[in-house]
Amino acid sequence: MRGVHFQPTEDQEALRAGVRDLLAGRYGREELRASVDGAGPAGGPVVDRGLWRELGEAGFFALRLPEAEGGVGLGLPEAVLVFEEAGRALLPGPLVATHLAAGVVPGAAAGKAVVTAFDLGGDLVAYLGEADAVLGASGEPPPAGEPVRSVDPLTPLHRVAAYGDVSEYRATGTLLTAALQVGSALRTLELAVRYAAEREQFGQPIGAFQAVKHLCAGMLVRAEVARTAVYAAAVTAAPGEIAAAGLLADEAAVAGARDCLQVYGGMGFTWEADVHLHLKRAWVRAGQWGTAAQAEELLAEELLASGS
Amino acid sequence: MDLTYTEEEQDFRARLRAWLAVVLPGLPARPSPDDWPGRRAYDAGWQRRLYDAGYAGLHWPLDAGGRGATPTQHLIFLEETERAGAPYVGANFVGLLHAGPTIAAEGTAEQRARWLPPVLRGDEVWCQGFSEPDAGSDLASLRTRAVRDGDAYVVTGSKVWTSHAEVADWCELLVRTDPDAPKHRGITWLAMPMDAPGVTVRPLRTLAGSAEFAEVFLDEVRVPVANRVGAENDGWRVTMVTLSFERGTAFVGEVVACRRTLGELARRAKENGSWDDPVLRRRMGRLYGEFGALWRLTQWNVSEAMGVPPVRAKSRTRGSSGGVPGTGGSVFKLAYSHARQELYDTAAQVLGAGSLVLDEEWTLDRLSSLSYTIAAGTSQIQRNIVAERILGLPKGR
User: Fold this and answer.
1) What is the pLDDT averaged over residues A34-52?
2) Angle between helices A170-198 and A76-89 (to 10 degrees)
């Protein structure tokens, strides 16, 4: 008897491994640091169009598009696994928006187009200078904006005069962004554990001190709870579960990066360590597709309606 | 990734639900919390009904008198009984979830025949004599001494945090049989009759005002050697088989209960106007999301355990010394105990000044919840387990 089989299937794990391998080969630490060095107000584009197309060919953007429309024909459970890997690799670019644009914006499914979205709120749009289209925009070409200095070196920002509506994409956008956050949370946990096992003070690895151990354990608990919430939401696609997954994943990613930074000590405060890149991206993602307040209000409403 | 139940599991759920609908209205009134004999009788009566209906020892292996149910069926059982408001396992907790599974896994045929059927029928109640005043988180440092004298061990020492000691027939007891061996290797597991001469039980009043635990003093208590489960000095390993049950599906009912409590809390907040406070409302919304995720984590753990036969397989796969099992359970317990304390702190906000009134159900629950980050392994010990067993961080000096 099989019963509920919540864990990813072999095929799903193979898909995840394929994306992990692709990203390890094409966007490892060297490439990550090179894109950080190349970015900045005067720097070049952040999105690597060649890699974007490779992702397209691998089915990253067309994953959930029906086969009849040239897609891979898979679902949200597969999508959250590959987005988790992209989050782990800290891959820059409007991944979620371009994935959502597959079948809507020409070229998005194949990774030939870079599509961003009005997903940040306020008056900011990410990757506007490099995008071929903006989800939620009323017409072509993409609206113009004023570049502003971004906290995350790999998420260039523009300030725009008028904002669009992306509510029809909000639920799926929230879930896929949560998957990115889970990948980042698991990665910062790995970094913290590795550093804690190597760095010695007072004659022993700092990871032998309970104060450091407990930080790492807390990171794991948050990441595991968030990951389960994301997987469950991918299976049910229920609005409440998606909202909860978003909240928990944002917390796991932001607090995970903060704790990782703390474990790294002074090194964590340097530009050279990758920790700040995870934290800054986690801050960006936590603001995408709606606020924590909106998610909590949605859940509160559902709670009140439950069982009454 | 799949969250649908098989047809067989859905049938199981439907039959259980129908049975609960018939049997629950016929139960007697619940005894008052300080009426220990009444509580024992009530819990035993419920266990007997489960036994007669074929639900006793659902997750125990068939050859131990259980039903050999899958972890998923056990999950469904715990979910449905809690949802229907069925009695809690209560006085039968140690027998069904600790001592019984230990005997099933490690006992001889005679021992299993002697002790398991009365547990399943609700005829005999067990308590647990593990912790001592000087052996809490460091359980393996326990000092209650057992000296062999002919066909008996003579046991002297004291135990603490023993639930149901006043009404128990048996105590699963950890004793030190070799004071010179390394601490994990000189411990033995004994079944001690609670009516043996030399056993003194003193109720221990908790901060909630009630006597949920007891101290048990042992003064030269004679326990037959035949009551030893496993080999002499192998009691630590034998015990680890037991402890894993505390952290597996043990919290399923509680998660269901927490979600229901949160729903009641929201409706109360709506009634008394505190729902209009957006900070409080959002806090409840977030908690609702967290308990939903904890439910999914339970399903995840159960799904992972599917295909592993209950009880028996676990004792084979684990290391034989110094191990505290159930690492996945540690992750769950850390998140759950924190969320549940948060739930009752939120309840206090909803009640406002009313939270100071002891007659409020949630006020007593709030007091009880203070133990969740301590009992069954403190959060600090759980974090050590997670850091060392899952993350592989080095042990401190």
Assistant:
1) 85
2) 40
- DSSP letter assigned to residue B298: H
Contacts of A214 in chain B (CB under 8 A): 380, 383-384, 387
CATH of A10-165, one of 2.60.120.430, 2.20.70.100, 1.10.10.60, 1.10.540.10: 1.10.540.10
CATH number of A168-305: 1.20.140.10
Q: Which of residues 44-103 of B touch A (CB under 8 A)?
A: 70-73
What domain range includes position B331? Answer: 247-390
Q: Given B278, B302, B393, which is nearest A197 (Cβ)?
A: B393
Q: If DSSP states are collapsed to H, E and C, what string results for A132-161?
A: CEEECCCCCCCCCCEEECCCCCCCCEEECC
Q: Taking the domains of chain A in order of start, what are their residue ranges? A: 10-165, 168-305
- How many domains would you assign to chain B? 3
| Closest-CA residue of chain B to A246 | B289
Judged by a CB distance cut-off of 8 A, whether residue B381 touches chain A is no
pLDDT band at residue A4, thresholds of 50, 70 and 90? low
- Asked if A218 and B383 come within 8 Å (Cβ–Cβ), the reply is yes
Last residue of a domain, one of B35, B68, B88: B88
Judgement on whether residues B291 and B324 belong to the same structural domain of the protein: yes
- The C-alpha atoms of residue A23 and residue B219 are separated, in whole angstroms, by 67
Confidence tier at B306 by pLDDT (50, 70, 90):
confident
A58 confidence band (pLDDT: 50, 70, 90): very high
Q: How far does the CA of residue B256 sit from the closest CA of chain A (Å)?
A: 12
Distance in angstroms (rounded) separating the CA atoms of residues B213 and B34: 12
Are B272 and B335 members of one domain? yes
Residues A4, B2: C-beta atoms closer than 8 Å: yes
B322 — pLDDT class (breaks 50, 70, 90):
very low
Percent of chain A with pLDDT over 70: 96
* Nearest alpha-carbon partner for A33 in A82, A85, A90: A90
CA B315, CA B310: separation in Å to the nearest integer? 10
Residue A252 Cα, gap to closest chain B Cα (Å): 12
From B294, which residue of chain A is nearest by alpha-carbon distance?
A: A225
Q: Which residue of B has its CA nearest to A221?
A: B331
- B17-21, B98-102, B330-334: which has the highest mean pLDDT? B17-21
Does B180 share its domain with B312? no
Decide if B396 is inside a domain. no
Residues B223 and B252 in one domain: no
Residue B343, domain CATH: 1.20.140.10
Q: Which helix (H) or strand (E) holds A105?
A: none
Do B253 and B353 lie in a common domain?
A: yes
Q: What number is the ipTM of this complex?
A: 0.94
Look up residue B293 and give its two tokens. 């995720």
Cβ distance of B384 and A3 shorter than 8 Å: no
Residues of chain B neighbouring A235 (CB-CB closer than 8 A): 1-3
- The catalytic residue among B106, B246, B254, B290 is B246
Across the interface, do B266 and A8 touch by the CB < 8 Å criterion?
Answer: no
Residue B9 annotated in active site: no
